[in-house]
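Hey, I'm writing a tutorial for new members on how sequence and structure tokens pair up, and I'd like a real worked example in the thread rather than a made-up one. If someone can provide the structure for the chain below, I'll link this post from the tutorial.
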Amino acid sequence: MKPGPQSNINQLEPLLRVRGLGKQYVQQRLFSRKKIAVAAFEDVSLQIFPGKTLAIVGESGAGKSSLARCIALLERPSAGSIDLAGRNLLTLDEKELFSMRREVQLIFQDPSSALNPRLTACEIIAEPLLIQGDGTKSQRRERALQLLKQVGLDPAGEHKRPLEFSGGQRQRLAIARALALGPRLLILDEALSNLDAANQTLVLNLLAELQAANSLSFLHISHDLRLVSEFADEVAVMYQGRIVESKSTRNLFASPEHSYTQELLASARSVEAILLERSA
């Protein structure tokens, strides 16, 4: 079995550095043969240090999920560079890229669509190890059982299938699968938005424990500013495909500068006030 995250990462250097990243999609106009290029996002630059969390917030359609998919290389960006631990992922050949994929894992909003319903919990967690050729069958099972326990699931449920778990448990199962290869970076694409408040808190606490134990870095895509304020070290605000403001979480919430950030925070506080008034 290959080791997890390396302990000799330079804590003073970013684990992830994205420069000038952009993504365009080609669309064909209705009732026309003409094709147009539509930018999902452009000129995005950001960095994440080992053991830290960067949150990206913004309205639907701002390009957050497209950005997440490009950083995870599920889609190829149209411009820019993605450096992970000093290596530009966009210059790697197929063999190098296959090996580097273990370093970055993405957790989706809906675990039901990301987990194969025909596989057992143990098989789901062990599948990335099988794809990468790690360990024997018994070693992969042992690793899967360890991860089930680590994310707060009963290893006795190793033969259950995804639909036999609750929503919160399925997300824990997705986290266990993402951890199987010992990644350095986890990308959470609205991974908590489908959970109720109680499960959100439980999963947040779990992620914080995993981060502390493994020096994990997180890229947290979210629209929930309450979760962001509790979880992120830094926040980047995305508006119409661009990063318009980026600060430490404390500074951003205390003194937002961009007009869109100010509107976003004011809206969130108004909703929070209404909810508090209703619960009083």
